[in-house]
């Protein structure tokens, strides 16, 4: 097995499947099973396990019987020329299992099995007619000849037993026998006679006991009957052999089908084992992507889980693992750095080979290779140092790595001068990055920490250390560079303080360690700030919730007051309508209605002029725009001509709409009377962009129950205004539109009245 898989404990993971396997074929396959590195194969294997897992989750009970190797059965029988009855029973068990599985394998990754069943089912029916399958014996009616032979055999055996019983009783009463029984010697019935009475019993001596105290005599009266029985038994064996050879020829013709269903069921068996194993650690199915970020949320190493389960130890700490291009992990020894490497590596192997991942969420990019440098590889027999072996492994990794490779390096550069080793390792890492490989690296080297911080590809994480209790927490924190905590560990073990202080004096770069100490204090301060921020955030969230409640209460109150005001205005308007004489001209009615409005509607609805308004000039019968506005006169620009006219000669070309609609003697207030207007400014946008933005705004206003939208488009060439107004008149959420009043932009804007949301 490649050393990379050995480092990641692939064999130990496979062993966890053995107790769940029921077919000999699956057990044999598992022994030599190597991880697959094919995206297509990975998706197929995941789908197979997922199908079975779904069936188990539905409550389906899936059990396989213990099934022997069909390869061995066919090999033995082909040498012999036929199958023995018990072997036929084992073949029948394979067919029964296949038929049972076929009940729910349609439209599944194992549906190929169904195509082999018609011929095998016909064979199965024939086998049931010929054999007692549970006992592994031929039925009497396997053939008519066998039926007659066995009938004759039973008759002879009954007659033989009857005669030997009578003879035994007779000679026992005479005192010629040592025991009141009869025996069989070499297939023939004999009586245990005393030596001194051997001549008293007529028969053939078939032997003596070891002590010589008993003579075994076959009585003459049953010899012929025994000979006849032996002849019948020989005939039976001959007929049985004929039948077995005949049925075996039918089985041999279906050998290919048997071999294929063995492969499919063994494959099913292995997938079932993966599903059952995954249910124990409550794993998830990974999302396998062509490339991208590796994500493992709340993940743990499966073997640590099973070890904890079996030894009643604490379960492994769950961690989040993220890998974009490169991840540098630092921290103390025994803090979990190597476990992190193994967890990431074994999770990738599991994802690509149909296992559930021990995590809450898993996104695994496809890797065609996993290359690992882990542990001490010193080879005493080859006279090779650990560093030499280490370098050979790194050379192998460099040669094989590409953009689809995951490289796991555990404290590389060990076994030689730390500075030289770190420099060499960094050069190798740079080459691996250039090749496009993804890298996870653990280290204590300050040089590697410093160099990696200068590369944008690197993320950083540290295994946490409890400085109060001088113990690792096995928790992975991202965005931090960790220390090895050698002095802390030494202090915990009990090394004298004086020795520790003396050791610190030998540090060549005191500034660095002073800086690191300050860094740790700043990290602690940041953690305190983080806790304070989280507490304040919770307080703000509570206040926000209270404000939302107050807002809802105010909104409800406003709606109630609006309804009350609407009812009051409806009553007022109905009174006004009723006060009008029946006989009244349309013009007169409108005049009175205008008087009513002037009394009822407050001043904000009265028309006023301002610079920029578009007006109609009565004396000159033309339209223009107010350039300058005086107390009694205004300067008007009409085309290229400037006019100075009194204000009384001007009329606005756009009329302010009434704040309500009138339908069948009822007045319905428009939303804008009570709700603030929404505004959208589309000046400077092209028509297509403006329409897209307007559609989004209309939908937003409708969902927020805003009744009025002011669309500012400017004058310009008029192209944008025309396109927008045409679009608005056809929009299903728009009730009506009108040119905006002067104080809202006049001809450079359009007021839109939206339909109410039910």
UniProtKB/TrEMBL annotation:
The EC number on file is 3.1.-.-, 3.6.4.-
User: What InterPro entries does this protein map onto?
Assistant: DNA_mismatch_repair_MutS_C (IPR000432), DNA_mismatch_repair_MutS_core (IPR007696), DNA_mismatch_repair_MutS_sf (IPR036187), MutS (IPR045076), MutS2 (IPR005747), P-loop_NTPase (IPR027417), Smr_dom (IPR002625), Smr_dom_sf (IPR036063)
- Which GO BP terms, alphabetically? mismatch repair; negative regulation of DNA recombination; rescue of stalled ribosome
Tell whether Coiled coil is among the UniProt keywords. yes
A single Gene Ontology MF term assigned here is: ATP-dependent DNA damage sensor activity
Biological role stated in the UniProt entry: Endonuclease that is involved in the suppression of homologous recombination and thus may have a key role in the control of bacterial genetic diversity. Acts as a ribosome collision sensor, splitting the ribosome into its 2 subunits. Detects stalled/collided 70S ribosomes which it binds and splits by an ATP-hydrolysis driven conformational change. Acts upstream of the ribosome quality control system (RQC), a ribosome-associated complex that mediates the extraction of incompletely synthesized nascent chains from stalled ribosomes and their subsequent degradation. Probably generates substrates for RQC.
- Check the record and name the HAMAP family matching this protein: MutS2
Per the record, the similarity remark reads: Belongs to the DNA mismatch repair MutS family. MutS2 subfamily.
The record ties this protein, via NCBIfam families, to: mutS2 (TIGR01069)
Assembly mode: Homodimer. Binds to stalled ribosomes, contacting rRNA.
Q: Which PANTHER family match?
A: OS10G0509000 PROTEIN (PTHR48466:SF2), OS10G0509000 PROTEIN-RELATED (PTHR48466)
Name under which the protein is recorded: Endonuclease MutS2
Instruction: Tell me which species this is from.
Output: Caldimicrobium thiodismutans
């Amino acid at each position: 097995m490649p050393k990379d898989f050995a480092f990641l404990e692939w064999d130990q993971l496979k062993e966890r499947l053995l107790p769940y396997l029921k077919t000999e074929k699956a057990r044999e396959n598992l022994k030599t099973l190597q991880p697959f590195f094919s995206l297509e194969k990975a998706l197929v294997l995941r789908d197979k396990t997922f199908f079975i897992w779904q069936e188990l989750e539905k409550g389906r009970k899936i059990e396989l019987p213990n099934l022997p190797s069909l390869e061995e059965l066919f090999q033995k029988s082909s040498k012999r020329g036929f199958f023995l009855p018990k072997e036929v029973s084992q073949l029948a068990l394979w067919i029964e299992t296949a038929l049972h599985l076929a009940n729910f394998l349609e439209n599944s990754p194992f549906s190929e099995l169904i195509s082999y069943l018609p011929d095998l089912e016909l064979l199965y029916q024939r086998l049931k007619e010929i054999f007692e399958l549970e006992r592994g014996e031929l039925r009497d009616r396997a053939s008519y000849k066998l039926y007659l032979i066995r009938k004759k055999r039973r008759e002879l055996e009954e007659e033989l037993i009857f005669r030997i019983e009578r003879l035994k009783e007779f000679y026992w009463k005479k005192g010629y026998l040592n025991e009141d029984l009869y025996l069989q010697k070499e297939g023939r019935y004999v009586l245990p006679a005393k030596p001194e009475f051997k001549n008293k019993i007529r028969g053939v001596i078939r032997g003596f006991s070891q002590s010589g105290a008993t003579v075994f005599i076959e009585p003459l009266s049953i010899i012929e009957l025994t000979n006849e029985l032996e002849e019948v038994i020989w005939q039976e064996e001959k007929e049985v052999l004929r039948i077995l050879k005949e049925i075996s020829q039918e089985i041999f013709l279906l050998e290919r089908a048997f071999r294929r269903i063995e492969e499919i069921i063994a494959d099913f068996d292995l997938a079932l084992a993966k599903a059952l194993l995954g249910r124990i650690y409550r794993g998830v199915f990974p999302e396998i992507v062509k490339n991208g970020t590796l994500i493992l949320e709340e993940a743990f190493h499966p073997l640590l889980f099973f070890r904890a389960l079996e030894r009643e130890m604490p379960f492994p700490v769950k961690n989040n693992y993220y890998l974009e291009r490169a991840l540098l992990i630092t921290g103390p020894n025994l803090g979990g750095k190597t476990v992190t490497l193994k967890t990431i590596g074994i999770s990738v192997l599991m994802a690509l080979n149909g296992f559930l991942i021990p995590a809450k969420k898993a996104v695994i990019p496809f890797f065609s290779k996993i290359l690992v440098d882990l542990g001490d590889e010193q080879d005493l027999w080859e006279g090779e140092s650990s560093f030499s072996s280490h370098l050979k492994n790194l050379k192998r990794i460099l040669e094989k790595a590409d953009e689809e490779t995951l490289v796991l390096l555990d404290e590389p550069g060990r076994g030689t001068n730390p500075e030289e080793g770190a420099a060499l390792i960094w050069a190798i890492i740079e080459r691996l990055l250039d090749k496009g490989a993804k890298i996870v690296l653990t280290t204590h080297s300050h040089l590697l920490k410093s160099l990696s911080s200068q590369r944008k590809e690197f993320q950083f994480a540290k295994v946490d250390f409890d400085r109060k209790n001088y113990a690792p927490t096995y928790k992975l924190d991202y965005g931090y560079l960790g220390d090895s905590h050698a002095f802390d560990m030494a202090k915990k073990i009990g090394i004298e303080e004086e020795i520790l202080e003396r050791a610190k004096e030998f540090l060549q770069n005191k500034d660095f360690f002073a800086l690191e100490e300050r860094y740790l204090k700043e990290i602690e301060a940041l953690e305190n700030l983080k806790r304070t921020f989280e507490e304040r955030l919770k307080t703000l969230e509570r206040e926000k919730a209270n404000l939302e409640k107050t807002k809802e209460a105010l909104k409800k109150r406003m709606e109630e007051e609006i309804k009350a005001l609407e009812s009051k205005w409806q009553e007022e308007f109905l009174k006004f309508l009723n006060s009008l004489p029946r006989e009244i001209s349309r013009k007169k009615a409108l005049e009175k209605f205008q008087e009513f409005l002037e009394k009822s509607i407050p001043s904000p609805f009265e028309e006023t002029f301002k610079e920029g308004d578009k007006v109609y000039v009565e004396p000159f019968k033309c339209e223009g725009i107010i350039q300058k506005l005086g107390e009694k006169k205004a300067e008007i620009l009409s085309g290229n001509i400037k006019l100075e006219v009194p204000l009384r000669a001007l009329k606005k070309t756009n009329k302010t709409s009434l704040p309500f609609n009138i339908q069948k003697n009822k007045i319905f207030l428009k939303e804008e009377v009570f709700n603030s207007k929404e505004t959208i400014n589309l000046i400077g946008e092209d028509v297509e962009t403006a329409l897209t933005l307007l559609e989004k705004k209309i939908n937003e206003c409708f969902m927020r129950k805003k009744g009025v939208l002011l669309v500012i488009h400017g004058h310009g060439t008029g192209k944008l205004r025309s396109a927008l107004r045409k679009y608005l008149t056809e929009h299903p959420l728009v009730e009506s539109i009108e040119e905006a009043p002067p104080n809202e932009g006049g001809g450079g804007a359009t007021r839109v009245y939206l339909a109410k949301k039910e």
